[in-house]
Amino acid sequence: MSTTPSPRRVALVTGASRGIGRAIAKALVRDGLFVVANYVANEAAAQQTLAELGEANAALAKFDVADEAAVDAAVKAIGEQHGRLDVVVNNAAVAVDGLLLRVKTADWHKVLETNLSSAFYLSRAASRLLLKAKESGRIINLTSVVGEMGNAGQVSYVAAKAGLIGLTRTLARELASRGITVNAVSPGFIETDMTQQHVQGEARQKLVAQIPLGRIGAPEDVAEAVSFLASPRASYITGQVLRVNGGLLIG
After folding, report:
1. Pairing of strands 58-62, 87-90
2. Is residue 251 assigned to a domain?
3. What is the pLDDT of residue 2?
4. What is the 3-state secondary structure (H, E, C) of the chain?
5. pTM score of the predicted model
6. 19 phi-psi bin (left φ>0, alpha ψ -120 to 50, beta other)
7. How high is the pLDDT of residue 216?
8. Is residue 2 part of a domain?
9. 234 FRET partner, CA 20 to 30 A, in 98, 140, 213, 243?
10. Catalytic residue positions?
11. Does residue 16 lie within any of the structural domains?
12. What is the mean pLDDT of each run of 10 residues along the chain (251 residues)?
């Protein structure tokens, strides 16, 4: 049985139950897209995201982005339910901090699978639907300022985020001939649960002092960058890293 494609562009946002992911989902809904909001465990936060987006504008998709089979099944379900997928936002991430000599192998693999392999799994699984989307097809990967400049005590997180930049540039070259753009957004320090957990007290004050704009960013700052890259206004931009860091890294 054939599926009638949705008249609205459809976006899949991973890690959308809170923070940057939720802000991105809200921005895309505002822009007229239907958003499939992924989450893995926090049911209450996911339901809050859905309530803020509205059931007419969004649906929840519970799956682990680090599970290849689960990703394939989720993308297949989107194709069957909506008949299209135009925008993929690889936002889901975890951080397990520690200096090199103290990093456990299991934690290394967990971070690489969740932050980097997941983007590969999802981009590959979604590629056929994105090819059908043609000029409206977008892949947007959330990297990080530390993936560009390094950060002591975050060897696995930095490696994964740096890898996303390489993945972005390669996929941009592979998919450009079909009109699909692939870009990355590189946030600096953004006010999220992860930032509040890892950057506190005096360390937070020192960090803010290093940011030329004098503040830690908001999730909405990142969401606006994703909104732009997902839109027709960015149709001639691909393979790029759009920095949203308040000037923390320039050049």
Report:
1. unpaired
2. no
3. 56
4. CCCCCCCCCEEEECCCCCHHHHHHHHHHHHCCCEEEEEECCCHHHHHHHHHHHCCCCEEEEECCCCCHHHHHHHHHHHHHHHCCCCEEEECCCCCCCECHHHCCHHHHHHHHHHHHHHHHHHHHHHHHHHHHHHHHCEEEEECCHHHHHCCCCEHHHHHHHHHHHHHHHHHHHHHHHHCCEEEEEEECCECCHHHHHHCCHHHHHHHHHHCCCCCCECHHHHHHHHHHHHCHHHCCCCCCEEEECCCCCCC
5. 0.95
6. left
7. 94
8. no
9. 213
10. 157
11. yes
12. 80 97 98 98 97 98 98 98 98 94 96 98 97 94 96 95 98 97 97 77 89 96 98 98 97 84
CA-angle at 155, arms to 45 and 125, nearest 5° = 55
The pLDDT of residue 4: 81
**Do 138 and 86 touch, CB atoms closer than 8 A?**
yes
- What total of structural domains would you count in the chain? 1
Label residue 184 left, alpha or beta by phi (over 0 means left) and psi (-120 to 50 means alpha): beta
Q: What is the Cα–Cα distance from 181 to 240, expressed in whole angstroms?
A: 10
Query: Using CA atoms, how far apart are residues 153 and 97, in angstroms rounded to an integer?
Result: 6
Is 249 within a domain?
Answer: no
Report pLDDT for 203: 83
Q: What residue numbers bound the domain in which 67 lies?
A: 10-244
pLDDT of residue 1: 46
